[in-house]
Amino acid sequence: NQNRLKKDYAKSRELAQKGVLFENNSDFYSEEKQNILQALYDIIGFTFIEGKDYENALINYQKSLEFAFENNESSDDIKYNSQVNMGYAFLRKADYSNALDIFTKILDNKRCKSSNTFSCLIIQNNIANVYYFLGDKFNEKFALNSVIQNFINNEDEIVKSKNFKKETLCSMILNGINLNVKDSIELFDKNCSDVKDPSPDLLLQLADLDFANKRYLKALEKLKKGKSLLVKNSDSYIEDKIIIQLKISDRKSTRLNS
Questions:
Q1: Half-sphere exposure (CA, 13 Å, Cβ side) for 132?
Q2: Which pLDDT does position 223 carry in this prediction?
Q3: d(CA 100, CA 105)
Q4: CB 147 within 8 A of CB 122
Q5: Widest distance between CA atoms in the chain
Q6: 196 phi and psi, to 5 degrees?
Q7: DSSP conformation letters of 99-136
Q8: Beta strand residue intervals within the chain, DSSP E
């Protein structure tokens, strides 16, 4: 239900903004506080991007990046999510130079340098999209060639990676065929014979959108139930820590208003 989702995102934003206020008003500094602020601003940015408010989304994603750590796995995951969605927002705003800059930075980070995932393939394809919008056929074809060759060289790893969708892959390959990219016809025949009516697609979707939905709405649901699993080695540690802070902030706000 879209109306329910809008309300949930609005509530998530409200709670995250309270969490930011609480953290900013606290006197102590810690790495944990910095990580929490990074995650909170990322959440706020996501709620704005879902509402198509790209200006406010970009402002909050930029704030999130300012709190990012270097060589920190948890922080790197949040940073990756922020940068991907910033690129999406720039594309939607027709700010192609900034979109190209952010997508290039994502491909240069260790997440895409050290592994070959479907999400990183989509980022490569979105660089081709930027050149498409700029009317630069030469660089669009060059970028699509990188997509095709990357898949050929790392097919097993990419197919097994998170959120792989054959239909999306075949749309990328079809874009390559339309520009006479080397090996694209053979690749299409090999992988797409069972895909019904694939069509060229500009693929402006958010990478890991399903993950983001589940992550943020799960955190909201926990907050509603007053639950937390504050275990440092759990996958949801940061989200759980955010929930604890938001509960504190909510109680503080209630006392002030009573």
A1: 19
A2: 52
A3: 9
A4: no
A5: 70
A6: -80, 120
A7: HHHHHHHHHHSHHHHH---HHHHHHHHHHHHHHHHHT-
A8: none
CB 64 within 8 A of CB 46: no
Which residue is listed with tokens 């979105």?
Answer: 126
Closest CA to 239 of 7, 22, 96, 78: 78
Residues 6+ apart with CB under 8 A from 64: 37, 38, 39, 40, 41, 42, 45, 78, 79, 82
The residue type found at 52 is K
The pLDDT assigned to 244 comes to 53
- CA 249 from centroid of its chain's CA atoms: 27
Res. 44: pLDDT tops 70: yes
Task: Give, in order, the Cα–Cα distances in Å from 25 to each of 17, 28, 252.
Answer: 12, 9, 12
- What is the b/e burial string over 73-88, where b = at least 16 CB atoms within 10 angstroms of the residue's CB? eebbbbbbbbbbbbbb
**Token pair in block for residue 119:** 């999400």
Which tens digit of pLDDT belongs to each residue from 201-211? 544 444 444 44
| pLDDT tens-place string over residues 80-120 | 888 988 998 998 899 999 999 999 988 887 777 767 788 88
Amino acid letter, residue 199: S
Burial of 23 (0-12, 13-18, 19+ CB in 10 A): middle
Contact (CB, 8 A) for 81 and 216: no
Residue 42 neighbours by CB distance under 10 Å: 26
